[in-house]
Design goal:
two-stranded antiparallel sheet, 106 residues, mainly alpha
């Protein structure tokens, strides 16, 4: 069975050599503190990983859609204020309570 495509556990479009997309996403998201940003980033990685092996340009467009959404989320700060109940209008750093930028006098 080695080397055969396992569409449930090891789909070929998510495996490159000995590396699997899910492992790369897990490593890339380990530093994220904002779950919305982490999820969007994971989607971007997924579509960029598989595009040459699955849906071609369609997957690139999906990656771009998620990237544009991530950029919008970080620029608008919507996800920070809603998740962390922040009253700060100046900060784009995920935090709770008092804004780290305000504490540092930025």
């Amino acid at each position: 069975m080695a080397g055969m495509n396992d569409p449930v556990n090891h789909p070929s479009h998510y495996t490159s050599g000995s590396a699997e997309c899910i492992d790369a996403i897990t490593a890339a998201l380990a530093c994220h503190t904002n779950p919305i940003w982490a999820w969007l980033t994971g989607q971007i990685i997924k579509y960029l990983w598989r595009w040459p092996m699955k849906n071609g340009v369609e997957d690139l467009k999906k990656a771009r859609w998620y990237l544009d959404r991530l950029i919008g989320e970080t620029e608008s700060k919507r996800s920070i204020c809603s998740l962390y109940e922040c009253d700060c209008d100046e900060c784009s750093i995920p935090h709770t309570g008092t804004c780290r930028l305000a504490e540092e006098g930025e």
